[in-house]
Each structure stands twice: as C-alpha cells, then as structure tokens.
Amino acid sequence: MAVTRRDTLKSGSAALLALGFPSSLQAEEVTAEQAIAAFVKGGEILQGGITLDLEDTAEDGFRVPVSVTAEGAEAILIVAPANPVPPIALVAFGALAADQQLSTRMRLARTQQVLALARMPDGTVRQVSKHVDVVVGGCGA
C-alpha cells in the first residue's frame, strides 16, 4: 500500500494533537515599547553606532527592503511602531558570526518611524531610526 501525502498529513496532525500542540496559535499583542524594553533588559540606549539602510519612500508597503549593520553586536531588533505587530525581526549572533548584519523585507502599515536596535556585549544598546513614507500600506491597517 502506498502512503499518500494526505495520509502523512493526517498522521502528523494526530501526532501533534497527541503531544498537546494547540490547534490554533495566536501571537500575543506586543507593543513597540514592550518589545524594546524586553530587548534592552535595563541597559542604556545610545543613539547611533549602527547603520539602518531603508528607503525614504516605500511605494508598496507589502515588501520594503531593510538592512541593519551593527559591528560587534550580540543581537539586532527591528521595530515598526505603527504596524499591527510592531516587532519585525530579532536576530541573535553567536561568537563565531563573521559579521553582524540583518537584511530582510518587511511590511509597513503606514508612514512611520522605523527603529533598529543593536545590543552590544557591554550591555548597552545602540539605536537608530528612519522615517519612511508609505504610499500603499501593506498590513491592512
């Protein structure tokens, strides 16, 4: 008897339910302030010291390229406070990371100030922000 994709999905779903995996997951609503506070962990926030590459005007808010470079950083956080879910990306770097850079695409709901934060090994956090004009919003807001 051949095992079909449908059989595999059924048995996989049954296994997840047996392990107590919830049938539907919902992200908690996290504000920009909560995300930043959790990232900073009581450390000092200093302006500058990292690079945020982001276009000034986003014609299409559905896919806005963004790049953050923070030499020596342990972690990078990108936050878009006016989005329905403000935290965009969080990346931690290991000791063997060749460079500390994050490049991705994000959705922006509307015109806003995008923040990038980098946590340094000494506990300080570097922050930079950039204003982005969004022509067509990408989050349905």
TrEMBL record:
Tagged with keyword Signal: yes
For this UniProt record, the keywords arranged alphabetically read as follows: Signal
Q: Which residues form the signal peptide?
A: 1-27
Give the top-rank taxon of the lineage listed in the UniProt record for this protein: Bacteria
Q: Which InterPro entries match?
A: SoxY (IPR032711), SoxY_sf (IPR038162), Sulphur_oxidation_SoxY (IPR016568), TAT_signal (IPR006311)
- Report the residue ranges that make up the Ig-like SoxY domain in this protein: 38-139
Q: What is this protein called?
A: Thiosulfate oxidation carrier protein SoxY
A Pfam family hit: SoxY
Q: Does the keyword Acetylation apply?
A: no
